[in-house]
Amino acid sequence: MRDPLTEVIALLQPRAVFSKRISGAGRWGVRYSEFGQPSFCAVLEGSCRLAVDGQRVLTLEAGDFVLLPATPGFTLSGFEPVRPDRIDPKVTPAPTGEVRHGTRGGRPDVRLLGGYFVFDSPDASLLVSLLPAVVHVRGVERLSALVRLVGEESNDQRAGRDLVLTRLVEILLIEALRSSSGSAAPPGLLRGLADARVAPAIRQMHAQLTRSWTVAELAKVAGLSRSAFFDRFTRTVGLPPMEYLLAWRMAVARALLRRHDFAIAEVAERVGYGSASTFSTAFSRHVGQPPSHYARAG
Question: In this structure, are residues 174 and 5 in contact, taking their beta carbons and an 8 Å threshold?
């Protein structure tokens, strides 16, 4: 059976772009404006504070890993009160060496590896909405090893660097997301996959995308009444079941249309529509343009 999390990561098409080492000592703080692209941070040694807009303040310690799938504004600082320096990542030149904040020279209070990458998928905002705003993972050695590899590879200019970085980022994303899944996760795909009743329905939707699912049939898969399943799915995933299924079908359809390997009728069949015209109507309503126009533009 297909793994929904792996499918979402594959459709997001992550691509590594940049990573840098950051250190801080004494009284220091930096305020990053909203970036929009996914970013990550791994604490190599020491500790610091991270305040992401709209989220609770986190104390980061050595071995911690943080992923921001859509990077809102945030403040990174030491533990002393300070007016943070403002940084706009969209216009600030990329540094070539380690970035030092606060007291210059001497041993830092914290050292981190930070970086960002991009999602090539035009459906990124839809798919990212299914993920937590902040993924904070503590003490997972596999993640620490992957971060070290990303840092080493991004600093070298060896043959095949871009392909290696892209594959490392894909694995890094999957490891971070599955390490943070559970009932405590905010509404979204991770929480849905951690729910013993909702997860089988999500997996069946992905495994049998062409099937004409109804809420009643999915409720049977989940072992719940129709109303109980609808409420639980909506509360857990953040979308009603049929809206999730439609969103996933449209994401898959857009990926197929961009490849130019399939006629519209074949794409329609692959995502569960009985005719090209029915699919075209649904696609146009969801995406804002007919599939034929979307394919040509892609």
Answer: yes
Residue 67 DSSP SS3: strand
**What is the token pair recorded at 172?**
């890094």
Q: The pTM is what? A: 0.75
Question: In angstroms, rounded to a whole number, what is the distance separating the alpha carbons of residues 111 and 81?
Answer: 19
In a 13 Å sphere around the CA of 67, the CA atoms on its Cβ side amount to 25
Among 110, 112, 79, 86, smallest CA distance to 34 is for: 86
Residue 280, pLDDT > 90, answer yes
Chain centre to alpha carbon of residue 286:
22
Interstrand relation of 85-87 and 29-32 (parallel, antiparallel or unpaired): parallel
User: 3-state DSSP call for residue 57?
Assistant: coil
When the pLDDT of each residue in the chain is averaged and rounded to a whole number, the result is 87
**Hey, which bits of 181-271 come out as E strands?**
none
CA gap 84, 75 in Å, rounded: 8
Mean pLDDT of 198-223: 95
- Are 16 and 118 in contact, with CB atoms under 8 Å apart? no
Least confident of 39-53, 82-96, 104-118, 230-244: 82-96
- Residues whose CB is less than 8 angstroms from the CB of residue 45 and which lie 6 or more positions away in sequence, other chains included: 62, 108, 110, 111
CB count in 10 Å sphere of residue 55: 16
Nearest CA-CA partner of 205 in 96, 149, 103, 130? 130
Rounded Cα gap, residues 149 and 282, in angstroms? 43
Residue 127: the pLDDT is 72
Q: Give the domains, in start order, of the chain with CATH numbers.
A: 4-179 (2.60.120.10), 189-297 (1.10.10.60)
Q: How far is CA 279 from CA 73, 114, 274, 287, 298, in A?
A: 39, 42, 8, 12, 18
